[in-house]
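Table S2 (text version). Query chain:
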Amino acid sequence: MGLLCDYFSAASDDAAAAVIDVLGGPRAASDTGSEVVELNGIEPFVVLGKLEELLTGLDYDSITENLRWGHAVAVRHDGELLVVSLTDEVQAALATASEAELRGVALPWSQIEEFWGQGEPSDLAEILIELAALARLATARHERLYCWVSV
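Corresponding structure-token output:
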């Protein structure tokens, strides 16, 4: 079945956490009022951390020390279902990046070990464009980004 990852925005950690009890996650939640970007297999820990490193120039180890990096705001079923926060830095980097910048970072991102040589830069560029649109919307609404993860 794989790893299901839905990226979404919410006004607070509590609002994001409420999505965990909705069967089907944020896509099925009728009251989130926000867009959802479904990126199955693109997890919010290492893969997004490496993206943040490429977008911001921050060292990966520094990123993982950020209190919002992968912070679980809700956990169910011994961790098989989670809602985790993304960092404000990755949100800001995505929200302010131009399409050309996003397309440019897709190639080095595609080469990270976690894609096992299967990351297609053109596909990843489209994913980055979707994530950036979500980040812009969240920023405009004064919301933060989260990821609903189902194993």
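Notes on Table S2: The longest helix spans residues 121-140. The chain has a mean pLDDT of 94.
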